[in-house]
Write a structure and sequence with these properties.
The protein has three helices and six strands. By secondary structure, the protein is α+β, with helices and mostly antiparallel strands.
Length: 132
């Protein structure tokens, strides 16, 4: 059975301050290019989902389920948004990522394939099979 995410690749946009050194007109220009890039992927039927993210939120961690403020906008690692695309290969996903209009300004794009099975679950099943 084929799932929607079988050929899904997640593009994570990291670096929320890429625009800081640009003028308002330059930011407007890059965002116009971004909208065209996004629209082309939608028109080509490659877009599964996409969203920008607010710069700050909450982080839940640990056995005690501690809730803390974060992530923080000054971090180059902060995720500013994502695309989930449906393409035939990692190479095609990378070509899409390379077309990101904000790359020249310091934004980075992490490309990750969607997994059919959670990698942790796969490890647990393999260990159970080996011990069996």
């Amino acid at each position: 059975m084929k799932h929607d995410h079988e050929n899904g690749y997640l593009l994570l946009f990291r670096g929320t301050n890429w625009h800081r050194e640009l003028s308002t007109d330059e930011v407007r220009s890059v965002m116009g290019q971004w909208e065209s890039w996004y629209g082309g992927l939608v028109d080509a039927g490659k877009m599964i989902a996409a969203s920008p993210l607010e710069n700050e939120g909450k982080v839940v961690s640990g056995k005690n389920k501690l809730v803390a403020d974060g992530p923080f906008a000054e971090s180059k690692e902060t995720i500013g948004g994502f695309f989930m695309v449906n393409v035939g290969s990692m190479d095609e996903a990378l070509e899409i990522a390379k077309a990101c209009p904000a790359l020249p300004y310091g934004l980075t794009v992490e490309v990750r394939p969607a997994a059919e099975v959670c990698p942790s679950s796969r490890v647990a099943r393999q260990a159970a099979g080996a011990g069996g």
